[in-house]
């Protein structure tokens, strides 16, 4: 029986969709020559007795005939039930089946009336808007052409027409209109304290406006209609009628928190982006996925419409045919807190972020050991630049720097160790050794004095300042200390 009901319901959906799109009117034109020759047969099949009935109406009646006969099936089952004892299980089953058929017949009858009501509306609606708004599955619920609903603070000569469908609220103005999907629409009555006795506050992801009804009764009517339509849109359309008392009970109002999909059209940051996830009162709130047309994608937590919490962000790099990839924490729409950012260039940063910038302690790896320029920095960052104490290991040049940084360059006191056994400790300026310093060479000689440009010695004759350290070399010991420190920091 379930399959029979499902077939009847889907058949009715197809026919009502065909009716809404004006299908019978279009079908009558090409069929008129053939069917007029068999007018009598056609009337017999459709059970139409009036000879003056138009062909379009006959076709309409003929296609809906299987649905009309559901009442007959219910009556037949009731007659069969009288053949059994009232207390018998057969009697009860036949009674239940008859009730189901009757319920289905009423349900499909309402669907037909909704389709005919919608078709009548489209016949009076402006042509251009009809082409863009008319859809097979869209049904009219109510509209404000009788001035029962108006827009608050609208201009004196403005025209505002509100049309409630089963999937959207449409705001029409002269030759323009905007469609607000019901899945992402929230309606609530304005309190008397707010000065809106007959007002309804409408909230959507990108707009908020107030509707004023002509009477308190109209306000209640529109609020109920919008709330029920939103609730039904969130539940999804069902071909089958609701059986049983429990399943037919509707909620008084749709949930404030819900899951829905929406494409932004107005917000500059989110224009043409599609969000699919949890919402709260018109804003993304909870877990969701946000996709931009250019390929950018964020997947994670939202709060009050912004990325907030733990999330993953991907940004395509068309020039390199790769993508930047961030996994970590967000706050108010920006990367903030601990995270890992993998750049399309191959660099990887692990550490702290603030306002979408590297800020705080972090580790930056550039390239791999097998690449042309592998290096590593671990230390402090300020506004996306190295600042404060940090350790930089240039594997290509075989140099390690441990010391102070400012604006992405070595600046202040620091230590450098090279693969050639040179050790320098002293002052740096713009990535170069400048000022007082101590240089320890591979043969354990020490130079103390002024440096002008990296390894260039300056000043007076320095021969008297060179000392032989002796058998105990400090360089191997220092190298081991540096390696141990770097490994510890990693």
TrEMBL record:
Q: Which domain of life is it from?
A: Eukaryota
Q: Which residues form a coiled coil?
A: none
What keywords are assigned to this protein? Repeat
Would the keyword Cell membrane turn up in this protein's UniProt record?
no
Domain Alsin-like PH-like intervals:
131-234
Question: What SMART domains has UniProt attached to this entry?
Answer: MORN
Stored PANTHER family = ALSIN, ALSIN HOMOLOG
Record protein name field? Alsin Rho guanine nucleotide exchange factor ALS2
Instruction: Tell me what organism the protein belongs to.
Output: Homo sapiens (Human)
């Amino acid at each position: 029986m379930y399959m029979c009901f499902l077939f009847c319901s889907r058949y009715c959906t197809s026919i009502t969709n065909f009716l809404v799109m004006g299908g019978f009117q279009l079908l009558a034109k090409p069929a008129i020559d053939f069917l007029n020759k068999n007018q009598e047969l056609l009337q017999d099949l459709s059970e139409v007795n009036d000879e003056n009935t138009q062909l379009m109406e006959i076709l309409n009646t003929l296609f809906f005939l299987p649905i009309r006969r559901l009442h007959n099936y219910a009556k037949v089952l009731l007659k069969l039930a009288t053949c059994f004892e009232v207390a018998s299980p057969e009697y009860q089953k036949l009674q239940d089946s008859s009730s189901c058929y009757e319920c289905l017949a009423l349900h499909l009858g309402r669907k037909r009336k909704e389709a005919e009501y919608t078709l009548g509306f489209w016949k009076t609606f402006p042509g251009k808007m009809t082409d863009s708004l008319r859809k097979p599955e869209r049904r009219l619920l109510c509209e404000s052409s009788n001035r029962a609903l108006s827009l608050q603070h609208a201009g004196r000569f403005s025209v505002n027409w509100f049309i409630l469908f089963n999937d959207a609220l449409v705001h029409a103005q002269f030759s323009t209109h905007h469609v607000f999907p019901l899945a992402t629409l929230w309606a609530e009555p304005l309190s008397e304290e707010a000065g809106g006795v007959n007002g309804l506050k409408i909230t959507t992801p990108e707009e908020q406006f107030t509707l004023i009804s002509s009477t308190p009764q109209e306000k209640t009517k529109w609020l109920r209609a919008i709330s029920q339509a939103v609730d039904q849109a969130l539940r999804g359309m069902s071909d089958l009628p609701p059986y049983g008392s429990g399943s037919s009970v509707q909620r008084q109002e749709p949930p404030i928190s819900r899951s829905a999909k929406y494409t932004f059209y107005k917000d500059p940051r989110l224009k043409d982006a599609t969000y699919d996830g949890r919402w709260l009162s018109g804003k993304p709130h909870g877990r969701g996925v946000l996709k931009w047309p250019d390929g950018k994608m964020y997947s994670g937590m939202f709060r009050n419409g912004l990325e907030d919490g733990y999330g993953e962000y991907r940004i395509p790099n068309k020039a390199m045919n790769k993508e930047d990839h961030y996994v970590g924490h967000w706050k108010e729409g920006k990367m903030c807190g601990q995270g890992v950012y993998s750049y399309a260039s191959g660099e990887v940063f692990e550490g702290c972020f603030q306002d979408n910038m590297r800020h705080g302690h972090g580790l930056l790896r550039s390239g791999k050991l097998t690449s042309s320029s592998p290096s590593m920095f671990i230390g402090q960052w300020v506004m996306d630049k190295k600042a404060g104490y940090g350790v930089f290991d240039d594997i290509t040049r075989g140099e390690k720097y441990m010391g102070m940084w400012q604006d992405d360059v070595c600046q202040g006191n620091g230590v450098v160790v090279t693969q050639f056994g040179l050790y320098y400790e002293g002052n740096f300026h713009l990535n170069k050794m400048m000022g007082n310093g101590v240089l320890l060479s591979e043969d354990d000689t020490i130079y103390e004095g002024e440096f002008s440009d990296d390894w260039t010695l300056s000043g007076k004759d320095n021969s008297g300042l060179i000392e032989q350290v002796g058998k105990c070399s400090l360089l191997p010991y220092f190298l081991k200390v540096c390696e141990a420190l770097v490994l510890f920091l990693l």
